[in-house]
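> @MW can you paste both from yesterday?
MW: sure, first one:
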Amino acid sequence: MADADAPADVREQTGAQGTHRGILTSATPESGQPTSAAVWCSRLSLSVVVLWVPALIWICTSSRSIAMQWEWITLILPVAALLFAISAQLVAKPSTKRRHVKIAVAVSLIAFAAGLGTAAARPRRNHSGDSYVKTKCHSNLRQIGQAIFIYAAQNNQKFPTTLDLLITVDDVDPGLFICPVSNDQPALGATTQQVVQAFKTKPGHCSYIYVGGGMNTTATAAHVIAYEPLSNHANKGAHVLYGDGSSDWLDAAAAKHLISEIQAGHNPPRPPPQSR
């Protein structure tokens, strides 16, 4: 308390300073806010979750091959958010209410659980899933090859110029043209003509690249009739349909060479340089 005998202006200055000091020393415990470090950690945790939301949406709406490559983000970001939230919990003073910290922990746990759920919803990432995909893709191309030879038997031994003719003439199921790990969907329509129209004019209804137009049944096992982009299987390899109707899986290096040869106009493809 200021001295009663002091001048009035000195008493007022001293009283003001004492009041100011009281505010400074009592603000932190009365406000119940976390320490600065805890606030920053909780804010970082929530910021990471904010980044995780559009990443999850992008992965869920992307093609299956892209999702297979990048879905680890749906787990890594929530883990980072959870670590920030735990750090905030550790550095916060026990006397504080830690509202920010509790929110950060709860949100990061929810994000982590959602990330686990997203990963669990993709069984194709295990070996049995990969085996099924390869078997299905191999079967698709083999059946496409059979349909091509049936068409050729009815058309002077000539292969169809485009694959949509197999739907028109041979009534091939449009689902055969879809790789199960691509983002493509079978062409739909109330009539065969509508299905063919959708197949021809709208993208996303064929996962395979057909190069057999102009060929005939004299094509050999060295010729390529159709192949799939490497992106169908996350750049691990691709299936190829050959001139004798057989289908085979090539690893990434062999598939890249074969595709480059076809695109350069060499069909049958030339062997790799080291094997020539």
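MW: second:
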Amino acid sequence: MYEDFHSTDRWSGESLHCRWKANIVAIATRHADAVDIRFDVSGRPVWIAMPCLAWVEQKKLTGHTITDSLAAQAAGRYLRQAIESGYDNGREMYTMSVEEVLEQVDAVLHEAGHTRNLPALIPLDDAQPQVEQDPSAVHTSADVREAPPPVRPAPRAFAAARSRSRRRSSVAAASGAAITTVSRCRRNPGSPVAARSSPRNG
């Protein structure tokens, strides 16, 4: 139907080959409350923006949702009408209103009879438009430096401190003395308790 079709431009008479490429939720790409349907029109990327509110309205009116395939078909039908009516002037993006989306969805459903009769959308690996790269900006393997290995804390220091603490606890337990936080801190020379209780502080 409208996922892959040919249409003749009204003004130039040129035959344009339109192919569906992708459905992309625009919140992720341009922070818009819409679904962008991408078409390739004779090598030129064209986006049809369909407001998300149309999905809500369709559910309220009919009790059914707009599927991905139905959205692509409705956008393709809209694009075909734009080309044949002369509305297509080489723009990269067209924004549909909620009413236009519902009208196109109804027309597609009338033609197909049911969503199960719509052709399956085949995902293509070239959904994103290709950007030409500056040859001088291409890096060779010699330009790319290897990242240094991540710095990890020395496990020996932690293990040694843990062993000292366990040794002190076992010595205190063997002597019958109670093991408290204060008794442990007094053994550590840099601790505040040890500093307060030292002979030089009186």
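> thanks! The helical segments are 26-30, 53-62, 68-85, 98-112, 155-175, 181-187, 192-196.
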